[in-house]
Amino acid sequence: MKLKLNKVTQAILLAFSFSTCSTYATEFNLNVLDAEDIENVDMSQFSIAGYVPPGQYVLTTFVNGQRLGAPRDISIIKLENTENTAAQLICIPLDMLEIIGLNASGKEKVTTTQQGQCLDLSALSGIQTKVELPTLSLNITIPQTWMEYRDPYWIPPALWEEGVNGGFIDYSANFSFTDEDDSTKRTYLSTNGTVGVNLGAWRVRGDFNAIYQKREDDGSNKEQHNFDFNRFYAFTSLKDISSVLTVGENYFYSDVFESWQYSGVSLESDDRMLPPKLVGYAPEIIGVANTNATVTVRSQDRIVLETTVPPGPFRIQTLDSGVRGVLDVTVREENGEEKKFSINTASLPYLTRPGRMVYKLAAGKTRYDAHSVTGRAVLSGEFSYGLSNAWSLYGGSQLNGDYQTLAVGIGRDLFSFGALSLDIAQSVSNFEDQTLQGRSYRLSYAKSFNDLRTDITFAGYRFADQEYRTLNQFMSQDRTGIESGGQKENYQIYLNKYFDKFNLSLNYQYSTYWQNKPQTQYGLYASTYFKMPGASKEKASVSLSATRAERDTGLKDDSINLYLTLPLSSGRSISLSELYSKTGGNNQFNHSVGYSAYNDRDNYSVNAGYNHGENVNSQSSISGYYSRDLSQANISVNASYVPEQYSSVGASIRSGLTVTSKGVASHRSANGDTRLMIETPGASAIPLENGVTKTNSAGLAVLPNISSYRQATASINTSKLPDNVEALISTTDITLTKGAIGYRSLSVMKGDKLFAVLSLDNGKNPPFGASVRNTNNRELGIVGEDGVTWLIGIAPKEKLSVYWGGKVQCELWLPEKIESSSSMLDLSCISGKETAPVASSISSSQSIN
């Protein structure tokens, strides 16, 4: 018995098989088809296992499940003069040999074929290659015996990409305006960021910052403004030696000596190029803002972070782990009042993997006031070498004609008792009237007590005698003739304790000086959470922070803040805050209550407070803060009102613009570092990742803050795609070198869907099973009986080709206006020459049996 199918039903079944087809061979019983011309059927592409029509394809290659970078041109070649008429060759380009990941013995067995155009991997026993057209992928399975070592968390250097050439600017800007009741008006505007140009493997960078301040009083105006580039430099990643070469103005963040600025050249090993085993250390910034405040963190004269925070306690944990030395923190309140404090970044005990050498080398002149240089050129270097699993040797030296320092140290892994290091440094400073020799001693310790759930992140002690000079101290004294106050002793400890529902952090620093008074800084941070009976399912939290900074003038700045958060629902909460502060001997108290809410893109809060204390007028206040994550920027606005005191408004933006040969896209700031440009050709407003980032009108978007030397994955958010768009390639991955501008194209099919009846110029129809493709060789439909075809992803006036017998047989053109799928188009497929579009509408209610 023959099964007679309605032609529309046949087309739908064929469309379904097209979208879900596999590579298994399928044997068709053509007798079930009620076709008048049963010979006019072409099912060849379904009847042979793994058969792919010969031609050129853009395929993503996978080796043992691991993606090998961007899609590549792969040719499918039909083999002649063989008994198997369907025999074909997957032509793997020669340049893929190095990235496949074969070991030495595997590479020796690889030859070439097709006159040296394609790799021949057949000598590797057990290898399998398979093309899957539905996913546009080439899957290669290679037995592990032929493969080099692979770490799932590390991509070997052969697969790292330098990205595309281009330029960018990343910036953040902050604005505030305060109108005081005594007619004083204050305007504050600051911006900082990085401009960069990428040429091949080289990255050229310039860090800039600018400040504008204006104060208007009765009859007088005072303005202050400044703009400068902190440094100009260029760098490149040297993969073979896992190092970064830098030329120009830079900062030498030393783990042995004090960090310093230079103009010259440096070569530094970068452990991020190695399989991840160690986690870098970075300090955190803890403080309290009384109003909508701007927090600025500087390393010497370079701004490493600037952000706006709402009233209340803040905790910043996003500093780069490579930053070393003293960090200066400024908290600028709305009324212009500034609180300043410093933190010493800690260097963990120097331990290095056995046989591994870590080094930093630099040659150049010391730099001050951004671009000025002084003294003779300096040659500086430091290293650490792993002697064994337990012992590491480290040291370094800084030399020029007038100044020499040498340091040597030993690191010891105490295993269950932690890690310890000890080093000694000797300096010789030759001034015009004297020569000074001094020594410095340093002891460092770190330990994670897993059973006690306690981390001593860093504990250290350093002593320097009176004639010891760091390089910065020597250069300053040699240039100005003024003896700087050298440090005598320094104690540091960073402690974290974790309980089941309670966390405790403690940091302490105590420094003494040979010429100045001692300074002390310490902070305590504690937090816990608990369930509120009858309240939201979310838990309430309470935190306590206490800080003290004793200045060299003998004054003490204290603050204690108690912060309680009571959750409501859907990201909403109420907060209560009690703040005590003592500045310059005056006690102040602040009580506030706030309401806040957040979602995937928005965050806002409203706070009301009351402030009173010694030598200040009691005052109430109300403030609001709102931030939003856009595809092109992170923005925030804030406003405050203090009766009989002042009113204030402010705003901030963090954004960037990247330009390449692929196009231009604005985006959230990447802080001058690695980024990935995504293109969705022919489609705009395509959501990526969490849906916040979308491609612009040119189909471009930039994902910022991509990890260097680590595999990054980018994907289309298919759950938020428009109805007329389908993601053909929804995800991709890439591994980029430091500072690269990566590029990936994610194909989407955007267009209409409709039924059409295809006819040839001889009055017949294309054979059942023929393939309809666009100019990109993408299959958009399969011909059914009597030419009935379900087409997807089509556009007006588009030219399509119809394939059967392994080649293009005819071409057709879609009309200028495509109606909805409620009607069926009659399309003429012309062979041999191009003609104008021919189409007529057939009512879908007509019988087509």
Structure explained in plain terms:
This protein is mainly beta. The chain contains four helices and 56 strands. Among the domains are: 108 residues, Ubiquitin-like (UB roll); 75 residues, Immunoglobulin-like; 81 residues, PapC, C-terminal domain (Immunoglobulin-like, Sandwich). The strands form ten sheets. It has a 24-stranded antiparallel barrel. Strands 1, 2, 3, 4, 7 and 8 form a six-stranded mixed β-sheet that branches. Strands 9, 41, 44, 45 and 47 form a five-stranded mixed β-sheet that branches. A hairpin with a 2-residue loop joins strand 39 and strand 40. The two termini are 18 Å apart. It is found in: Cell outer membrane.
How are the SSEs placed, and which strands pair?
Elements: H1 7-20, E1 55-63, E2 66-67, E3 72-78, E4 88-91, H2 97-100, H3 104-108, E5 111-113, E6 118-120, E7 128-132, E8 137-141, E9 161-163, E10 166-180, E11 185-199, E12 202-217, E13 220-238, E14 243-252, E15 260-269, E16 285-289, E17 293-299, E18 302-309, E19 312-316, E20 326-332, E21 338-344, E22 357-368, E23 372-386, E24 391-399, E25 403-413, E26 419-430, E27 435-449, E28 454-464, H4 471-480, E29 487-498, E30 502-513, E31 519-530, E32 540-550, E33 556-567, E34 572-583, E35 586-598, E36 602-613, E37 619-629, E38 633-642, E39 646-660, E40 663-667, E41 675-679, E42 687-688, E43 693-694, E44 700-703, E45 711-715, E46 725-727, E47 731-745, E48 748-750, E49 752-760, E50 771-773, E51 779-782, E52 788-794, E53 799-804, E54 807-813, E55 823-829, E56 839-843
